[in-house]
């Protein structure tokens, strides 16, 4: 029996707690049914300006204890409304029910961890009498909120969790946020704002503006009261932000083209399970999804057969059906692009083993073998449930060279038990994360996460690292007898 879709929602923006509407609206579509599931206002630059001005005028004075209570209360509310949020996520994104429930659970972790860290004083102490030039003093550090507000811009693939990764660390550090969720999936973010207000967050600390660049332009990037711009999304938009933002701190989490590497000593059944799961969860729409499988020739035939067997077991269909494993991608245009790239790879010599039979925005798990590693399908980020096998020579030097051959460097997974291989992968793969016997996407919401090269500027997400990025370090010193 399918899960019931939520009622159509006609939303307003939340600007410092005020409900604000506009004459022009953006329709939000269910990718599976192509029906409208909600509407949101199309903000203009003056709405963005108002949100930042109200944020800048408010100076939060929440104690660490008060911040912790707000964050933990938010986690509790989300846990109690897990299915309500999952319905909303599935309705506006097309992600299957299983993936949406998982996302709601992850968001609980984000607020829980942020609440725990809110009461931790991570200041440092430096004794000054440690050299001939020293004095009888001590230097202390403390972290302070930003003077202005945080501009947070989020993508469609994690409508709840990605938003939470921007907001929770900001609350933990007494910062104010102006959030702009993508126009494709804004409904979940607005529902989350209401939960945060309900949990006791002063409304001036969070505004949510909706719309798209056509109506609001670059206001989220250029506002004078935005001290920091944190963005998760495409490389193209990330570089545009970097060019436009000017003298602002930037935290850019961009694309990934993450390899799963399978060496000759690997347990092939376990590796195939990681490959299929890593490539298809969240409909393959994760920057850390398995986007390339580099398998050495010595075991490639057996490995490809196992991958095909597991991929055929996955059910693709109505996202509201609890038995479905893979829902839609974000819209039909994206599915058509994946179809085109697979066809181009086949024209270049790849072998289609399964899938590539698109139906609207439904794009099923698609197994492609013998892909040239220079093919667009695997050189660019293919943001869907394609399971692409690249057969590589039986030497680790070639594996590392081919893995590092793309412009992106976010994460990786490695299937081997040889310590000599593992140490080389950790040291030589040009990525932010190396997971041994796990998918590239494995992490906890606390741990550092981010990439290098075109995947980002090196700043990390994860609650603990975001708290560092969202604060200024102030030092002070006092006389201190030796």
Offer a concise description of the structure:
The protein is of the alpha/beta class and 482 residues long. It has helices spanning 45-57, 64-80, 82-93, 97-118, 161-172, 187-198, 213-216, 219-222, 235-244, 268-280, 297-312, 332-347, 376-379, 396-403, 419-428, 463-469, and strands spanning 9-10, 13-15, 18-20, 25-29, 36-41, 125-127, 137-145, 149-154, 177-181, 206-208, 226-232, 249-253, 258-262, 290-296, 351-354, 366-369, 386-392, 408-409, 413-415, 435-436, 452-453, 471-479.
Structural class: alpha/beta
DSSP summary, beta strand count: 22
Shape: globular
Radius of gyration computed on alpha carbons: 23 Å
What is the count of DSSP helices, taking H or I runs of 4+ residues?
16
Low-pLDDT residue intervals, each spanning 5 or more residues: none
Helix percentage range: 25-40%
The overall average pLDDT, rounded, is 97
Could you give a short account of the major beta sheet?
Answer: 7 strands, mixed
Q: What proportion strand?
A: 15-25%
- Ends apart, CA distance between termini: 73 Å
Strand order of the largest sheet: 15-16-17-14-13-19-20
Name a few traits of the molecule.
alpha/beta; seven-stranded mixed β-sheet; 21% strand; globular
Secondary-structure topology with pairs:
Blueprint: E1 9-10, E2 13-15, E3 18-20, E4 25-29, E5 36-41, H1 45-57, H2 64-80, H3 82-93, H4 97-118, E6 125-127, E7 137-145, E8 149-154, H5 161-172, E9 177-181, H6 187-198, E10 206-208, H7 213-216, H8 219-222, E11 226-232, H9 235-244, E12 249-253, E13 258-262, H10 268-280, E14 290-296, H11 297-312, H12 332-347, E15 351-354, E16 366-369, H13 376-379, E17 386-392, H14 396-403, E18 408-409, E19 413-415, H15 419-428, E20 435-436, E21 452-453, H16 463-469, E22 471-479
Parallel strand pairs: 1-5, 8-9, 8-11, 9-10, 11-12, 13-14, 13-19, 14-17, 16-17, 19-20
Antiparallel strand pairs: 2-3, 4-5, 6-7, 7-22, 15-16, 18-21
